[in-house]
Amino acid sequence: MRIMMPRTYRKIGFTLSLCVCFTLLLIACSSSKATESLATSTGVALPATQTIPAHSAAVPTGTAEVLPPTATVPPPTPTAEPSPTATLPPTAPPVPSVTPLPPTPTDTATPTLGIGSNRTIEIDQMVQVYVPAGDFLMGAAATDKEAKTTIAGGRAYPEIPQHTVYLDGYWIDKYEVTNRQYALCVAAGACQLPWVTSSYTYDKYYGNPEFDNYPVIWVNWFKARDYCTWAGRRLPSEAEWEKAARGTDGRMYPWGNEPLDGTRANFCDVNCTRTHAYGPINDGYPDTAPVGSYPAGASPYGAMDMSGNVWEWVNSLIAPYPYDANDGREDPNAPGERAWRGGPWSNGYWWMRSSVRYRSVNWYQWYVLGFRCASSE
Q: Is 226 among the domain residues?
């Protein structure tokens, strides 16, 4: 006989069954975790194949005692051996610094310039002589009966009074500028040709190799100035020219006060075709002579042909003495007549004196007119 339980009891029974099942499931899960935990904590191996590390001894299959894990002891930290202490050499006592002394004058000395000093200018190979600083006597002495004393009577200019002039040291060309040297300036485009290429005696003078070493002529003041500028020099002042010609003692000629002869200068001698030729003397040339042909007539500083051969342009305007470089006569742009110095081959002995002064307008050109240059120290 089936006994029918009320519906309420059936629901309770079903619920209890679910609870029992759930409880058993929880117990089973807890048991599994506990077993794993026990194996881990007691070292009891589970019945399963395990992988043994290669460095461990073989363990029989089955239950085996697992040794507790060996504690990893860190290797001892090596103690660095102390590096041997380098023994430094004893410190030398400090050496006091010494300030080097400037070189003695003999170490860097330059040659002392004086009478006899000379140099060669590269651009035209002109030799220059040195004129030291100092006073000199300029003009003719009152006792000189040959001196021009008034402006009347031709183009010569008064030479008096004689006076003292101071000049700084300077260089002046040893020789008059030659045809060959002037041609270099023309070829460079810095100079114009001489106005005429012949001379008083020779039809072919400038440009003729036979006369390369003769003084250039037929040049005006502007052409002379242009050449000196191209060559890195300048025209000398009238005072510079006269000191270079006669020195400091007021002598009559570059060589002294001895009379003129054929070994000292080129002037109108027996070879001269002009009416005032001076017959007793023979200087060897009827016209200009090669520069430097009369070493016996050299000035105290070694300048050649300061008496005779050709007149020479200077920078100065002609003006009365006393000479004053600051009174406007050295202004290259000032109007007026410019001075000539030195006397030519075509004139007689009176014109060979170092104090003689001549003049003309600056554009004048002639067969007896040349020049030389100068340089400041």
A: yes
pTM: 0.72
* Whether 360 contacts 219, CB under 8 Å: no
Has residue 79 been placed in a domain? no
- Cis omega (within 30 of 0) for bond into 161: yes
Q: Which two tokens stand for residue 260?
A: 């003129």
Q: What angle do CA 181, 184, 185 make, to 5 degrees?
A: 100
Domain membership flag for residue 73: no
Cβ neighbours of residue 81 closer than 8 Å, sequence gap 6 or more = none
- Going by C-alpha positions, the residue among 225, 212, 197, 227 that lies closest to residue 123 is 227
- What the block records as the tokens of 347 is 């004139």
Which residue(s) pair with 137 in the sheet? 164
Residue 173 CA: distances (Å) to CA of 87, 179, 218, 231, 359: 75, 15, 19, 11, 21
Domain count, the chain: 1
Find, among 103, 131, 135, the residue nearest to 118 by Cα: 131
Q: How far apart are CA 373 and CA 280, in angstroms?
A: 34
Torsion angle, alpha carbons of 68, 69, 71, 72, to 10: 160
> DSSP string spanning 168-195?
--EEEESSPPBHHHHHHHHHTTSSPPPS
**pLDDT tens digits for the chain (377 residues)?**
343 444 443 444 444 444 444 544 444 434 444 333 323 333 333 334 333 333 333 333 333 333 334 444 344 444 444 444 444 444 544 544 545 555 544 444 567 999 999 999 999 999 999 999 999 999 999 889 999 999 998 999 999 999 999 999 999 999 999 999 999 999 999 999 999 999 999 999 999 999 999 999 999 999 999 999 999 999 999 999 999 999 999 999 999 999 999 999 999 999 998 878 888 899 999 999 999 999 999 999 999 999 999 999 999 999 999 999 999 999 999 999 999 999 999 999 899 999 999 999 999 999 999 999 999 97
We report the CATH number of the domain holding residue 135 as 3.90.1580.10
Beta-ladder partners of 339: 359
DSSP three-state, residue 182? helix
- Domain assignment of residue 342, given as a range: 115-377
CA distance 41 to 33: 12
* Cis before 322 (ω within 30): yes
Place of tokens 């000379």: 118
